[in-house]
């Protein structure tokens, strides 16, 4: 038996005025996804537990079968694991975005122009983080470069009692002052964010990017604090050998902590221009090399939701259907039996530009147990089935053992 999960990050949505009050799932042409839904179980699953923030960290832990209220220690520690940062039990890791802020002198009056600094390349970002480490790093604070705009700060003997460290993608287009934590414990972090704006104002990378018509990475933004993570081994729990395919350190970090393979794929960006086929082929290779389970995480729909790009979000769903599912399904048909599950981790509604906690549609297809499903899968048809899973972390057991 082979098991594949295809996770469309942030795919679920609310009706979008720019799309005729339809959701991207309703408008997207997705014949392969729909064909599976016609013969599979469809319903809604609550991936974000009450009282928890609807981040990709909490939601993907849930989809992978981990009770976030038990296992979640923060987002950045999972990313830190992926980029090889060694954490002690007393250390705190924070996500360090490189962002674009507006030009006001007073930091508190600046606006969050872009949480990703214009989709900055990993190469440009490495130079930015290198400078930040040289200027702000010391025996207590160490900056590590990651992928594109996503980086890490390690705080020796730090604290997670920091008040509200707001994710930058939650405040796109907003003045940042009211979203800066006023906790005394967070003061050194906020001070570093403010100092970074001065350090990066005339950074050579930014001067070149402006000349090229690109957005500058003119500040760091710290959030997602947490302590060293500890997850139960996925194989010990489910007795299947697993792999995670993703462009982002968060998902690879979860995979590493769960004892799973995390192969690298060339030219993956986490956006609509990612190497879709490369991810699918990497998953097939993992199955051919003896893995029983592959979790394919695709970030593109989420990024389009954050960026207010409704047409691109529709297209991202279609591209996965065109470029990922055919490769996966063809490979799976070679095996006597298989299951495939497709779902988002959480909604990323266009109208809010950030994550939501609403239950999301799921689909489970089992080759040797085809059933009557739905003609086309979206938020409404999934709800209409009446199938509902309240505790999202139980879904993985249902998928593998159900």
Note down, in words, how this protein is organized:
- With 402 residues, the chain is an alpha/beta fold.
- It folds into 2 domains: 2-73 and 230-401, Alkaline Phosphatase, subunit A, CATH 3.40.720; 92-226, no CATH class.
- The protein has 16 helices and 12 strands.
- It has helices at residues 24-27, 31-37, 56-63, 68-71, 75-82, 122-136, 187-200, 204-211, 234-238, 249-257, 276-288, 300-306, 310-323, 325-332, 379-384, 395-401; strands at 2-8, 41-45, 92-101, 112-114, 141-147, 150-155, 219-226, 242-245, 293-298, 338-343, 360-366, 388-389.
- The strands form 2 sheets. The chain has a 7-stranded mixed sheet with strand order 8-9-1-10-11-2-12, sandwiched between helices. Strands 3, 4, 5, 6 and 7 form a 5-stranded antiparallel sheet that branches.
- A hairpin with a 2-residue loop joins β5 (141-147) and β6 (150-155).
- The longest helix is centred in the first third of the chain and has 15 residues, at 122-136.
